[in-house]
Amino acid sequence: MDKFEKTNGQFEEAVAECRSLFEKKLHDYGASWRILRPTSLTDQLFIKAKRIRQLETTGLSLVGEGIRPEFIGLINYGIVGLVQLDKGYSDTVDVTAEEALALYDRYATEALELMKRKNHDYDEAWRGMRVSSYTDLILTKLQRVKEMEDLAGQTLVSEGIDANYMDIINYSVFALIKLNEK
């Protein structure tokens, strides 16, 4: 197995874990996230990334949850963000659990395909990075998204909010992989 095949397998394993949690929450809450506007999703992602940075900096968690669940949350909310950008938000839950899972799988696959292309071009550079660097890059991406949202899409050279969400998903998957390898 070459290094890229190993990464692809690890990526798929990490996303499968995230999907399992997403599916369980979908059972418990339905697709209640359909009500969230994109700016609210960006803020939810921001909260999770800030919490990771706080835990990395202090090593102290008063609620008893660690960094790993927050990266899982970043992946799942990142995928939800992509769905919301595509479908728009709704005032009610307007998708079935099956439709929500199909949308999840679609965007998880798109993230995997993007990661494969970038991972090839960057020759697995992410493996030499620290998890804390992923956190900082995610926070940077979120700041960019906030700026784009504030500009109401009137950007000059930006790749777009969706590209930033994809990067957040992929950095978070890399973090899960690295945390699993420790």
The radius of gyration over CA amounts to: 16 Å
Low-confidence stretches: none
Run of helices and strands? HHHHHH
Main β sheet profile = none
Strand proportion: under 5%
Q: Structural class of the helix and strand makeup? A: mainly alpha
Distance from N terminus to C terminus (CA atoms, Å) equals: 21 Å
How many E-type strands?
0
Based on Cα principal axes, name the global outline: globular
Average pLDDT works out at 95
Level of helix content? over 70%
Number of helices: 6
Your description of this structure?
The structure is a single chain. The chain has 182 residues and is mostly helical. The chain is 75% helix and 0% strand. It contains 6 helices and no strands.
In short:
The protein is mainly alpha-helical and 182 residues long.
Which short descriptors sum up this protein?
6 helices; 182 residues; 75% helix; single chain; mainly alpha
Topology:
Elements: H1 3-29, H2 38-58, H3 67-87, H4 97-122, H5 131-150, H6 161-181
Helix pairs in contact: 1-3, 1-4, 1-6, 2-3, 2-5, 3-4, 3-6, 4-6, 5-6
